[in-house]
Amino acid sequence: MPEQTSRTSENEKIPPKLIGAIIAVGSLAFIGILTETVMTVLFPELMRELNVGTSTVQWITTVYLLVVSATMPISSYLKRKFPLKGIFVAAVILAITGSIIMIFGHSFPVLILARVIQGIGSGVAAPLMINIILEQSPRSKIGRLMGVGSLVITVAPAIGPTVGGAVSSVLPWRAIFVIVIPVMVIALIIGLCCIEQKEPTQEAHLNPLQFLAVVLGLCGLVMALNQAGVAAGAAVSGQSYTHALAFAVVSLIVGVLSLLFFGYSSKRSFSPLIRLGILRDPVVLLHLLAYTILPIVGIGFGYVITNLAQLSLGTNAFLAGALVLPGALIGAFFAPVGGMLYDRFGPTRPILTAFAVAIVGPVLLLVFSMRLTPELLAGFYFIFGLSYALGFSNIMTSALSQIPHQFAPDGNAIFNTMLQFGGAAGTALFSTILTIAQAGAGDEGTPGFAHATAVGGAWTFATMIVICVIAYVALVCAFRIRAKRVRAVG
Asked: How far is Cα of residue 20 from the mean position of the Cα atoms in its chain?
């Protein structure tokens, strides 16, 4: 009888419309992440064009990621309140509007506004895709479909820096946003044809105070990190740092108090923005810790490598972007393989093995940090990128398997929010480290500045190792608790 059930599960068909829906919604998230990673490789050019420094220009990426992470908490409410197709159409309109502003905007504040609008669209799209997979996929195929969803999103960071470097070599950088608009129109057509409403909408209510608390909390924490870095850089270079330090302290206090208020309000609310009760399970909480801090490394790598290559090794933008391509692109295409391993062997071995290998990448980068070449940068990142892609999407799949079905949208919202927050924190953290290292080292292009950037790279790689070790320990603890539960039930 078990063999018959297994064969039946293996023969479950994936509906073609489900694949179309995943591609359509995933493509929208793909475009958002593509344009985010495109901008990171263009930072040196944008710094010259807009006359801003390293710690300022990174807000083009950080603001986008912050808006995405601030939008994702309402994904559970949107999924319950509105039809899936309507949510998707609204996200496409926002993404196209943001791209048009990027094309015609010529000042830093206007570009920030465009990234805010694009971030709202992407913040809606990514959890919408996951909700569709969780709600409509056959149970025996959920791992590989989550891998496909991860593939759609993770290919973007793989090709983003290369696209940015290639396009900026022959065309104005704004041409990138002209190119993506037809892709979004095609995604809109596919989505209108394929997205289906399997569950009825509900009479959900949005609590504006809770939403504001989440936004203030996430923004406050990342701004605190950024301004602390500005203050540290100013202190090292002998400049005044009082204003930046005060802003960092205030931001930290606002962020922490806002999140505490959100948690308190959610417990007492009849219809909370996100049902946080699922985090009482230590297994889910430990998975969430790993899922939050690993993107600090995964997304931060794109920023670190492209800027290290240009500012320390003296490569052009195209080559700097190309260094990320092998590890990120091949790794992204292996994401569904990680899902298949999850379906076959369960979560423990595929996840722990993948990240045991992934940590080798930053270790080697640290060892060779002061004598790196472009080839070594690309090769060591390849080790990390491939292993990271094999294991990362399985972390959320593993955690959501411990959550009752009716709370899956809440778990999805929490995990996607913290994913984006981790990415925003990573960009802010590593740009801060580089800024501190570069302080007082002279002008860009001088040997002293290049050496200081290399030192900053060594500091970032050491930080990456610490983050990976913490995440690995959290996952080991989660799987041990789960194993004890299984033995107790057995």
From this structure: 23
